[in-house]
From TrEMBL:
Keywords: Cell membrane, Membrane, Transmembrane, Transmembrane helix. This is Multicomponent K+:H+ antiporter subunit E. One of its GO terms (cellular component) is plasma membrane. Its main location: membrane. The chain crosses the membrane at residues 26-44.
Amino acid sequence: MSRILPSPFLSLTVLAVWLLLVGELSAGQLLLGALVAIVLPWVAQRLRQTRARMRSPLTMLKLAGVVLWDIVVSNIQVARVILGPESAIRPGFVWIPLDIRNPHGIATLAGIITMTPGTVSADLSPDRSHLLVHFLNLDDPQAQIDQIKQRYEAPLREIFR
């Protein structure tokens, strides 16, 4: 069964998105959506170099809570910076050394950083050992590095070990 449906959740998601996009629940659209939902994950699986192996569901839940909290807090901090005097804004780039080596973990870390207001992942070193991050307001570079490594990278290392 896994040869036909390598990722059942992805197939269901593709089918649901297909039906939402066409805005019609007919037999033809259901059949065409099912075909796309079977073929797309099958083709995508063949293109993948490595498969994501995630562990520690409890750590994933904790990390999701931390990220959601940080997004709310960062929105408030960014609003204060933007509404304050322009001279108080100190943007900057910082190369963050990475301990995580799993490509899926690195991609997740870059996504979390980019989703958090006030930060953007800008580049990854060719050897995947450093991530370049732009901060809207960079007061203490080492504190920012430590915070990212503790709050995001450490749980991701456990999830993607």
